[in-house]
UniProtKB/TrEMBL annotation:
Similarity-based family: Belongs to the SEC23/SEC24 family. SEC23 subfamily.
Main location: membrane
UniProt name for this protein: Protein transport protein SEC23
Keywords: Cytoplasm, Cytoplasmic vesicle, Endoplasmic reticulum, ER-Golgi transport, Membrane, Metal-binding, Protein transport, Transport, Zinc
Lineage, highest ranks first: Eukaryota, Haptista, Haptophyta, Prymnesiophyceae, Prymnesiales
Organism: Prymnesium parvum (Toxic golden alga)
Function: Component of the coat protein complex II (COPII) which promotes the formation of transport vesicles from the endoplasmic reticulum (ER). The coat has two main functions, the physical deformation of the endoplasmic reticulum membrane into vesicles and the selection of cargo molecules.
Comp. bias regions, Low complexity: 12-21
Coiled coil stretches, renumbered: none
Length: 767
């Protein structure tokens, strides 16, 4: 089958995601259990729905939405509601609601809410929407190379931003500097202490917002001038530098990033009085946040773990406040320091931010790799240059309030994604609200775990789930978008398992396991175990629960004098259950669990897993291996993602979404056209994704080849019959040739899928 490399807004023809359902609500199974006895939560089978709130462009309806009058329901009219003579019947609660004045049944049949599952309404405006604000927050300790990368990216981005976009600049070190971009031509800043601002000083800062930020047409040149002024002075002559080094004490660097983000939040509050403003803060960080709000302790100090937990809580609280102020923080970590990115993830997740890692700023492009400046420019383009007229979906918005209503007996238990808990201050229907979504764009994804409470109150054998989102669009209008889906119910365990959508279920399961592992790693009794270890344990426990709950037990009968003894020796699994087990196995081997680099690299992938679209997370969990068609030299075809593929292919590409590995056999020349074409496609796809992917090219038998082997399943450990089932062409080779292949790939202690399945009690693991 021919294949292409997917971009951030495009899926491959051989993508592991089932794209047959274009709905904005994708359930983990095509059927839902009819009662709590079939509830899949205790058995490990995930039950939930993935929400893509702004993935599709909808024509707004300029009228008031019809709403159920029952105070315990308040659902919106939808296509599954029955139209009667003078009323419409709510499909969720069954209440009959009379038509409004001038409405008839025939007229309502033509309206969007009774013909479409997704409807958008334009609501009365609260006033002019504040301009979008982009704030650059720069570490005072940033290297010259990293600062020049940032300057180059900003110069490229600024012409693409709308003229009415407001710009701001902060620096942070021992203190926070807020540059007065709207007031003077020089690089002049007001300094704030790293400690929390008193309320009087915070109010004064909000009242002076107009001095610090201004529209792009008036502040763009001033911003570039101030960024240039941040460059460190040229180095001293060697003799003078040696003398000063010998006479001076070591200098300790400080970074009060948390305090800088709190000040950015105050500026955002000063910019928006009644309606929400969409604010993006671009943070460039070159070391751990070790001063001010959420400061991380020295790892060697006494009580460091207790202080780290306090920092986690402080930054998590900051992330929730940023979400409510519609501020999204995007942190790029630059350099070789340890950033403790797991703490940053807790802050960035609720506010809809992103985490990027650049270990070698200003690195040259070697072996097909992309320079750090090119990656930063591509990432800022994805974050800041979202066209509201793009065909991929709505441009975005801010101030989103999400509510979820389900048929009685079905509950929304938890929301995973960029959201904060909903309270009474966030809307007029807070009693039915689930979460507050500060910033929205076409990539925004939320996953909802569903639970059953008793029997589901079926309507014609179906359950109904409705998602309502109130937000302010980039056009300056207040909008209401309703998404409604109806799902059949079943009383059969076999039917429920057969209806599972493997990719969607694996994605929700991976998110739940990651959050559970992160929470357990912070508990005092498990503090010695990392997130990686907790995640591995959770995966193994979930796999065992799935096998025991849904596998077919195979018993061994031993005859006895009085009775026969029956012992369960294992389980047989069907295709759907095998798909879930294979997804868990690949999650266990993925960069989310086992990073190729350090723990900070894993945290980048973990945040992406919790927030990215399904097509991206599927590649994070199960990378795709593509080979080049020998006849054309251009067409890509799917290859089993196993290490044995390296013995049968000449040129390969491994696509893990954030990493693209181009491999060539030793028999292929370096200037071979197939490699050049594959590198060209990889670089083009890398720059169009978010985050921009790393591209690495290497050849067979080099030290870098281990990076590829770490992401491929070690099928060299499997018996010959299993290997032949995976790659049929291996069945024709001789035993001595097979032995040479195994020696060529080397020894590994990692379990293959077949071996891991056996350890979970599976007797027959389908290849």
């Amino acid at each position: 089958m021919a294949a292409t490399l997917p971009t951030s807004d495009q899926r491959s023809a051989v993508s592991p995601v089932d794209d047959s359902d274009p709905s904005a609500l994708l359930f983990t199974s095509a059927l839902l259990p009819a009662n709590a006895q079939l509830s899949a939560n205790e058995s490990g089978l995930p039950l939930g729905v993935h929400i893509a709130p702004l993935a599709h462009t909808l024509e707004p309806q300029y009228r008031e939405a019809l709403r159920c009058e029952a105070k315990s329901c308040l659902a919106y009219a939808n296509k599954f509601c029955a139209l009667e003579e003078n009323s419409w019947r709510c499909v969720l609660c069954g209440r009959s609601n009379r038509f409004g004045a001038g409405l008839t049944r025939d007229a309502l049949r033509q309206q969007a809410e009774f013909t479409s599952e997704a409807v958008e309404y334009s609501l009365p405006s609260l006033g002019m929407l504040p301009p979008r604000l982009v704030v650059f927050a720069v570490d005072d300790n940033l290297s010259k190379e990293a600062l020049r990368d940032l300057q180059q990216a900003v110069r490229t981005i600024l012409p693409q931003l709308p003229a009415e976009t407001y710009l701001g600049l902060l620096t942070f070190g021992r203190a926070v500097g807020v540059y007065m971009l709207a007031e003077c031509d020089g690089a002049e800043a007001v300094m704030f202490d790293a400690e929390p601002l008193p309320e009087e000083e915070a109010a004064s800062l909000r009242s002076q917002t107009s001095h610090f930020v201004g529209p792009k047409y008036a502040t763009a040149d001033h911003l570039l001038t101030c960024l240039s002024a941040l460059e460190p002075p040229p180095p001293l002559p060697a003799a003078l530098a040696t003398y000063r080094t010998a006479c001076s004490l070591p200098v300790e660097t400080h970074r009060c990033m948390g305090s800088a983000l709190e000040i950015a939040r105050q500026i955002a509050l000063g910019l928006s009085i009644q309606t929400p403003a969409h604010v993006d803060v671009i943070v460039t960080l070159c070391g751990p946040n070790n001063k001010g709000l959420g400061a991380l302790p020295d790892a060697t100090s006494r009580g460091a773990e207790r202080e780290r937990q306090a920092a986690c809580a402080a930054l998590r609280s900051l992330g929730l406040r940023l979400c409510r102020a519609n501020v999204a923080a995007h942190v790029q970590c630059v350099g070789s320091h340890a950033f403790d990115a797991g703490v940053l993830r807790g802050m960035l997740l609720p506010c809809g931010g992103s985490l990027l890692l650049e270990r070698e700023p200003d690195s040259p492009a070697v072996g097909g790799a992309l320079s750090s400046a090119a990656r930063l420019t591509a990432n800022l383009t994805s974050i800041l240059c979202r066209s509201p007229h793009a065909s991929i979906g709505a441009g975005g918005g801010a101030g989103g309030a999400l509510s979820i209503r389900c048929t009685r007996g079905l509950l929304a238990a938890a929301v995973v994604g960029a959201a904060a808990p909903y309270d009474d201050a966030d809307g007029d229907d807070a009693e039915h609200g689930v979460c507050f979504v500060g910033t929205l764009h076409h990539r925004t994804r939320l996953s909802v775990a569903l639970e059953l409470e008793g029997a589901v109150e079926a309507r014609d054998g179906h359950a109904v789930v409705q998602v309502a989102l109130r937000y302010a669009s980039e056009y300056g209008e207040r909008r209401l978008r309703t998404l409604t889906a109806r799902v059949p119910l079943t009383d059969s365990e076999a039917e429920l398992l057969a209806s599972v959508r493997v990719a969607a279920a694996t994605d929700l399961l991976a998110k739940q396991l990651l959050l559970q592992a992160s929470k357990r790693a912070l508990q005092p009794d498990t503090v010695s175990q990392s997130v990686q270890r907790q995640l591995e344990l959770g995966i193994d426990e979930t796999a065992a629960a799935l096998v025991q709950s849904y596998g077919s037990a195979v018993e061994k009968v031993t005859p006895g004098w009085l009775w026969n003894t029956r012992v369960t020796v294992g389980y047989d699994v069907n295709e759907k259950l095998y798909g879930l087990l294979a997804g868990l196995y690949r999650l266990r081997r993925s960069g989310v669990t086992r990073p190729l680099g350090d723990s900070d690299a894993a945290e980048v992938l973990r945040l992406l897993l919790l927030t990215a679209p399904l097509e991206a997370t599927s590649l994070l969990i199960a990378p795709r291996l593509l080979g080049v068609d020998e006849t054309t030299g251009r067409t890509l075809r799917s290859v089993p993602a196993v290490d044995l593929a390296l013995t049968r292919e000449a040129v390969l590409l491994l696509d893990a979404h954030t990493d693209l590995f181009v491999w060539r056999a030793s028999s292929v020349e370096e200037n071979d056209g197939r490699c050049s074409e594959l590198e060209r496609q990889a670089r083009a796809a890398a720059l169009s994704r978010f985050p921009a992917a790393n591209v690495l090219t290497f050849s067979e038998a080099t030290s870098a080849e281990r990076w590829l082997l770490c992401r491929l399943e070690p099928s060299r450990r499997d018996p010959p019959d299993i290997q032949a089932a995976i790659m049929p062409e291996l069945s024709t080779i001789l035993d001595d040739t097979r032995q040479k292949i195994m020696e060529r790939l080397g020894h590994t202690d990692d379990l293959s899928l077949w071996e891991w399945g056996k350890s979970c009690g599976v007797l027959t693991v389908l290849p």
